[in-house]
Amino acid sequence: MNVSLPSESGMRRTVPKLLAGAILGAVIATGACARAVDNVIAGAISADADEVAARHGAEPMAGDPQTLMTRRRRTVTGDLPRAQRLADQVRGSIAVYRDVDIAVADGYRSFPPEPGPAERIIHYVHQRRSQREEKRINPAEPGALLYERVNGGELRLVGAMFTAPVSAPLEELEARAPLSVTNWHLHQNICIPKPVWSKDQWARTLPGRAPVFGPGSPIATEAACREVGGRFLPTVFGWMVHVFVFAPDERDLWNAMYGHAPRPSAKVEQHHRH
Question: By CB neighbour count within 10 A (0-12 exposed, 13-18 middle, 19+ buried), where does 16 fall?
Fold first, then answer.
């Protein structure tokens, strides 16, 4: 194989974090071998731990050390009105997407493409709008829509998600959505399968039905990830913030983990590599 591929650091600067998988087809079209494609995708969705500029203002979420959550700041004048304006703008702009078919027609796509049955909150990501969030957020055009799975599979629009680069400092996160009102979060120490696009690998579970791969897995070290044949990523995607403007309870408006099930328990040491 003789193919020229961009460096991993270069990919991190140019590929929207939540849509790194979208480069797969283009890279395959170059004739790249599977290993090279896998390396490019992994480099695009990840970043080194020392690139997390806001780490000193965040801490692992209780019961989920793989989720780094910003700490709430003391409310200052203007925070609540600013957060309310953002929520009102989002609510007005995404109401049309209550019908998920309209969202798809407008360019939003489910991520991952086939969410597992245990996933209650489904993300629909817009490639171009998500990419713009590397520089700023636009309440009228969020990078992702959030749907809640109800009534055995029906998708109900509950809100939107905005992102920021993993290298964004606390003050940049604050400027996008006030840290006194909401929590930004970042997924860290994640084990993903090789190859990253393998549906069979993503479907693997540990004793106790916990997933082997992804943010919901109890596997959070490079050694444990290597044992199950995976690839360890220090961070994935970038900073994220949720705003649940259509949640049934208005108190969940800025609840970062609304609809996300608690992490299942599992005995990692009982699992053997496939």
Answer: buried
User: How many CA within 13 A on the CB side of residue 270?
Assistant: 10
Contact 212, 264 (CB under 8 A): no
Q: Which of 249, 155, 185, 189 is nearest to 47 (CA)?
A: 189
What is the spatial distance between Cα 188 and Cα 221, in angstroms, rounded to a whole number? Answer: 10
pTM (predicted TM-score): 0.77
Long-range contacts at 75-78 (CB < 8 A, ≥ 24 apart): 75/180, 75/181, 76/180
Given this model, what pLDDT does residue 15 score? 41
Q: State pLDDT tens for residues 10-28.
A: 434 434 444 444 444 444 4
For residues 270 and 267, which has the higher predicted lDDT (pLDDT)? Answer: 267
Mean pLDDT to the nearest integer, 111-129: 83
CA-CA-CA-CA torsion for 272, 34, 128, 239, nearest 10 degrees? Answer: 30
Q: Which residue has the tokens 């702009």?
A: 93
Q: Cα separation of 36 and 191, whole Å?
A: 18
Q: Which domain holds residue 142?
A: 48-270
**Average pLDDT value for the chain:** 82
Q: In the chain, helix, strand, coil percent, each to 5?
A: 35, 25, 45
The total of structural domains in the chain comes to 1
Element (H, E) at 128: helix 127-132
* 7 within some domain: no
